[in-house]
Amino acid sequence: MDVASVIGLAAVGGSIGCLLRVLVRDACAAAGIPKWQGIALINLLGSAVAGAIAAAQVAEWWQALLLVGLFGGFTSFSAMALDIVTLWIARRRGAAALLGLTTIAAAPVAAAGAGAAATATAPIIAGRGTWRRMAVVDALVIIAGGSVGCAARGAVVLAVEHAAFPAWSATTICNVVGSAFAAIAARALIAQADRGEPLTHPALRAHLDRLILLGLCGGLTTVSSLAVEMAEIARENLLHAAALGAVNIGAGCVAAAGGWWIVRWRYPLRERLEHEIEVAIQ
C-alpha cells in the first residue's frame, strides 16, 4: 500500500476514533465516573478490540483504517499521561499508580485475551448511558484535530518501517512527543485563562481544547497499538513486553511533567492551578 493511502486511511479512521472517545468520555462523566477512570476504561476497551482485529489478520488497508486510525484515535496515551501527572500533583498517588497499571498491565492483557478469542471480527462492545448532545462544530473540531494527529502517527509508522526499526518504536515516539505537547498545551490554556487573555474566551478556549488535546494529541498518541505490540512481544519474552510498557509509561509521564514545568516561565500559574487540577481529575 502506498504512503498516501496509509496516511489518508489513518486520518479518516482516527478522526472518527477521536470523536467516539469524546462521546464515551462524556457518557462516563454523565454516569458519575471520574475523568481519569473514564480514560482508563476507554483505553482498555480500545485495546481489547484492537487486539481482536490484529488477531484476525485483516487486509492491510483495514489495518491502516482500524488499527492505526480508528482505535489508535479512540485510545489516548497523552490523556492518560497528563492525568497521571495531575493526579500526582494533587497528591493522589494511588490513583496515579492505578491509572498507569491499566496501561502497563491490563491493556495488553485485554488485547491478548480478545485476540485469542477472535475469529473473523472483533466483538462489538455497546455502552448504555446518556450524555449531552454534542454540537456539530464541536464534532468537526475534534475530527479535524484527530485526523491530523492520526495522519502524523501514520507517517511516523511508515518512517520507522522504512528505517527498519522495530514497529513499537513508532508508538513510543508518538506517545512521548504527544504527552509532552499535551502538557504544554494544557498549561498554556490554563495560564492564559488565569491572566484573562483574549485568546481564552470561553468558547475559543473550548475549541482549542477539543482541537489540540482531544483531537490532535489524542490521535497522535495511542494505547491500543501499544497494548497489541506488548501482547505480541509477550509471546516471546514477557520481560521485554513489560519493559516496553514501563518505558512508555515512564517516558510519557516524564515528558508530560517536563513539558508542564519547562514552560512555567512563559506560562506562570497562580492559585487557579489547584482548581484546574481538581476539575481535570474529577
Structure described in brief:
The protein is mainly alpha-helical.
Question: Secondary-structure blueprint of this entry?
Answer:
Elements: H1 3-30, H2 35-56, H3 60-74, H4 77-89, H5 93-117, H6 136-162, H7 167-195, H8 202-220, H9 224-234, H10 238-262, H11 272-280
Helix pairs in contact: 1-2, 1-3, 1-6, 1-8, 2-3, 2-4, 2-5, 2-9, 3-6, 3-8, 4-5, 4-7, 4-10, 5-9, 5-10, 6-7, 6-8, 7-8, 7-9, 7-10, 9-10
Question: What can you tell me about this protein's structure?
Answer:
There is one protein chain. This protein has 282 residues and is mainly alpha-helical. The protein has one domain. It is 79% helix and 0% strand. It has 11 helices and no strands. The protein is globular and about 50 Å long. The N and C termini lie far apart (43 Å). 51% of the residues are buried.
Structural class: mainly alpha
Report strand %: under 5%
What is the 3D shape? globular
Round the Cα radius of gyration to an integer and report it: 18 Å
Mean pLDDT: 79
Note the main attributes of this structure.
79% helix, disordered C terminus, 282 residues, 11 helices, mainly alpha
